[in-house]
Amino acid sequence: MITGDAQHLASSYDTVVVGAGPAGLAAALGARETGAERVLVVDREREAGGILLQCIHSGFGLHYFAEEITGPEYAERALEQVLEHEVDVLTDAFVMDIDSGAGSSSRLALMSPSLGITTVHTETAVLAMGARERTRGALALPGARPAGIFTAGLAQKMVNLHGYLPGRRAVILGSGDIGLIMARRLTLEGVEVAGVFELMPYAGGLGRNVVQCLDDFDIPLHLSTTVVDIAGRDRVERVTVAPVDAHLVPQRDRAWTIPCDTLLLSVGLIPENELSRTLGVRLDPLTGGPVVTSQMETSLPGIFAGGNVVHINDLADWVSEESLIAGRSAGRRVAGTRLPDDNIRIVPGDNVASVVPHSISSERAHTLYFRVREPIREDAVIRLGSLHQRKVRALVPAEMASIKAAPRFLEDFHGDVLRVDAVPASRAAAS
Amino acid sequence: MSAVGTATYLCTSCPLGCRLEVDAADGDIVEIRGFECKRGERYAKQEHLDPRRQVSTTVRVTGGILPRLPVRVSEPVARDSVRAIVDALRTVRVVAPVRCGAVLVADVLGTGADVIAARSMRRAPRA
Ligand SMILES: Cc1cc2nc3c(=O)[nH]c(=O)nc-3n(C[C@H](O)[C@H](O)[C@H](O)COP(=O)(O)OP(=O)(O)OC[C@H]3O[C@@H](n4cnc5c(N)ncnc54)[C@H](O)[C@@H]3O)c2cc1C
Ligand code: SF4
Questions:
Q1: Helix or strand run (H / E) with residue A409
Q2: Contact state of A73 with B119 under an 8 Å Cβ cutoff
Q3: Which of A367, A379, A420, B31 has the most beta carbons within 10 angstroms of its beta carbon?
Q4: Any residues with CB less than 8 A from the CB of B74 and at least 6 apart, and which?
Q5: Residue nearest to atom 1 of ligand 2 (CA)
Q6: pTM to 2 decimal places
Q7: How confident is the model over A167-191, as pLDDT tens digits?
C-alpha cells in the first residue's frame, strides 16, 4: 500500500478509481479480476473506507461478507481484499480534475501535501466519490445563523472519530437513518435529544432504526412537523417547530419552542458530482448521478461509476456489488474483452422515483435498483414492463428495492424502452 | 402492576411494519395479534420476552492515528444492559496498535458478550 508520501506512485495506470469508500474499493477489486494490472485508488481522506469509518453501528456486510458487522470492520475487510490484489491505494490526495481528452486515455490532476500537484494518466477511470449531505443552504431554513447547526453526518464524524460532542441538548430535523442513528449515539454519550422532527407523515429511515434508536430511548418522533425558526446570538439557543398541513405548509399558530444548543440536519444526501460535471458525463436529474449502462459505464467511454455517486444507497453491500460491476467493466475494457452494448433503455414508471442502471442488454441478467416515491404499506407489485413482475410485502422510500431482468423474459421483447412500476397489488390487479 | 396486559410492538422484520399486539398474563404470552407472517410472530415473542440489541460505542485510545477506537459487543445483549455497557466503557483506555477483533473486555458486565475492537488502529507516526 502506498499512503500520503507516495514514492511508488506510477505515472500511468490501467484503471484509476476516485474515492476509496466501499464503492471505490470494490471497483478496484473488480478491475483486477478482469484484466487491469495497474490499478490505483485515490482518496482525499487520511484513510481508505469512506463514510463507513464513522458508521460504527452494525448493520453492514450481511450480503457481501455474509456476517453482520460495523462500518469500520466492513471498510477494513474491503481494504484488505484490495491490498491482497496489489492495488495501489493513495490517501490524503484530492482528485482536482479529470479530463478524458483525446484518444483512449484520461488525465487526472491530483493534489496532496506530499506530492503537490501531480498528473496521472489512465486508460479507464471509475468515479466513486460518494455523496455529500444536504445542508441548510440547500434547505433554505429561516432564522438566525448562530453556531451549533451541524449536518448529522458531520456530527457523527466528530463524535465517533474524534470524541467531540456537538452540544448538550439537541434537536434533530429529518428522520433519515443518519439522524436516527445519531439520536441514539448522542443519547448514549449523555447529550439530551429533545426530539426528531420529520416534515413528511412517515419516517425517512428504516423501521428498525425508529424502534432501536428512538423508541428504546424514549426519544419522541414528531411526524408532519418541521423547524420554522432558529434563534440565538452566537450559539443556537432555541428552535421553533410547527406541524405542517397536507400541503406541507407550517401551521404557525400551532408552533412551539424548544430550548437547545444544537440542531442536527438529517435531510438527505446528494451524489457528489463536481468532477463528473467538469468531465462532462451525462447526469440524470432524478438520481443526481451519472447516467450508466448495465456495465456501469457513463456516457463517456472508459469512464465508469458506482455507489452513492450514482444514486443514494442504504446498503453498503449493494454499493460493493454494483461497483464490482463497474470495476470489472473497466478491467474488461483494458483487456479488450468488452461485453456487447445494451439494447434496452430503462425508465421509471408508476410510483418509481428513479432506476439504475439506465439501460440493459436482452442477452444478460441484471439487477435493477430503484426507489419508490410514495410508501406502499400493503402487498405491492413490481413490474418490468409487461414482461415480468414480482410481489413484495411493502415498499417504502427509505429502502431501495430491486427487480431482476433476465434473458429468459427479455428474449421475446422487441421494443427498446422498458418501464419499472411499483404499485399496490390491489391496483395492479384492476389495471 | 396488573398481571394481565397488552403490549404493542412495531415489527421491523420487513418494510410493511405491522403493529403487533401481545397479550400476556403473569409474564406468559397468551395471544399475539397483528402479524402478517411467521417472522412477525417470532419477532413479537422475542421482543416481549427477551429483547436483544447490538451495542457500539467508542473507547479512548492513546498513541493511535485517531483519539477514539470504535468497539462493539461480540453478540447481541439484553436491551436493558445497553446503557450500562456504554457507561462502563467510558473509563476504558487502550493503547495503539490494536487489531480489529481484539477482545478488550471479556464478558462485559456478566452479559456473556465480549467487547471487541471494530477496527485496527495503527500507531501514529512520531511527529
Ligand atoms: C449514518 C449512515 C448510516 C448508514 N447505515 C448503513 C447500514 O446500517 N448498513 C449499510 O449497509 N449501509 C449503511 N449506510 C450506507 C453506506 O454507508 C453507504 O451507502 C456507502 O458507504 C456509500 O459508499 P460510497 O463508496 O459510494 O461512498 P463513500 O463511503 O462516501 O466514499 C466516497 C469516498 O470518496 C472520496 N472522495 C470524494 N471526492 C473525492 C475527490 N475529488 N478526490 C479524492 N477522494 C474523493 C471521499 O473522501 C470518500 O472517502 C449508512 C450511511 C450513513 C451515512
Ligand atoms: S409481520 Fe411479517 S409482514 Fe408484518 S412487518 Fe413483520 S415480517 Fe413484515
A1: helix A407-410
A2: yes
A3: A420
A4: B103, B113, B114, B115, B116
A5: B40
A6: 0.94
A7: 999 999 999 999 999 999 999 999 9
